[in-house]
Structure formats: C-alpha cells, structure tokens
Amino acid sequence: MLWKEVDINPEGRYVLLLLQDEGGGRYVRVQLVEGDEVVGSCGEALRTAEIPSAMIGTSDIIDISESVPLANGEYFILDAHNVWFTREEVFDIHEGRPVRWVGGVAPKLAPK
C-alpha cells in the first residue's frame, strides 16, 4: 500500500503525482483535486488523469497504472520497488535505444 497514511474522502477527486527528485529518486503521491485545480508539488514530473476515490481507496497501484492514463495520455508502470517509469522509457530500454528519460534524469534504482 503506497498511501496508507492518506484519508480518502469518498466524495473527493484525486490524481497521482509522479515525483522525481534531483538525484533521480522517483515517488508516487496521492493528491486531492481542489475545485478545478490540482495543487502541484515540488518535484512533480507527471500526473495522472482524475482517479475515482473508490479506486484510490483500494491502493491498487498496479490497477491504477494499467487503467488510468497520465494527463498527457500515456501510461506508467512501477518496478518491484515502486519506482515509476513511462511506457516510452521501458520501450527504449527493451529496444536498446538511448532512453528518453522524463526530465532528462535517469531514475535512481534500488541496489541489487
């Protein structure tokens, strides 16, 4: 469960913020939509389209990543350590091409 500390309002509207710090750390955070705006966050790289509160309440990040697009229409995935990647980044990795990293910064991966 990635956001167990968040109280989900059943009437609320939510997005996921995909955050990235200067060192390449990538994180996911739930953000309540306030009015017609989403209050951004320092380090925000991407965000999802709106997610129903019932779906947020399940904390099923895999289901969310597979069924809710990013605001730009693309999709994201998570690795086993909850580091997010765009499908474009994963495609580049698998094809052995230079990776077009979001923000120009490669993610910091968990040690092996």
Q: Which features would summarize this protein structure in a list?
A:
five-stranded antiparallel β-sheet; alpha+beta; globular; 112 residues
Overview of the molecule:
By secondary structure, this protein is α+β, with helices and mostly antiparallel strands. 20% of the residues lie in helices and 28% in strands. The protein is built from three helices and seven strands. Strands 1, 2, 3, 4 and 5 form a five-stranded antiparallel sheet that branches. The longest helix is centred in the last third of the chain and has 9 residues, at 87-95. The protein is globular.
Helical fraction: 10-25%
Cα end-to-end separation:
22 Å
Give the number of domains. Answer: 1
> Structural class of the secondary elements?
alpha+beta
Element-by-element helix/strand order: EEEEEHHEEH
**Cα shape:** globular
Major beta-sheet overview: 5 strands, antiparallel
- The low-pLDDT segments are none
Please tell me how large the radius of gyration is. 14 Å
Secondary structure tally, helices: 3
In round numbers, the mean pLDDT is 87
Question: What percentage of amino acids are in beta strands?
Answer: 25-35%
Give the total of beta strands.
7
Give the structure's gist in a few sentences.
The chain has 112 residues and is of the alpha+beta class. The chain contains 3 helices and 7 strands, in the order βββββααββα. It has one domain (13-102).
List the helices and strands and how they pair.
Blueprint: E1 13-20, E2 26-34, E3 37-38, E4 44-47, E5 51-52, H1 53-58, H2 61-67, E6 76-78, E7 84-86, H3 87-95
Antiparallel strand pairs: 1-2, 1-4, 1-5, 2-3, 6-7
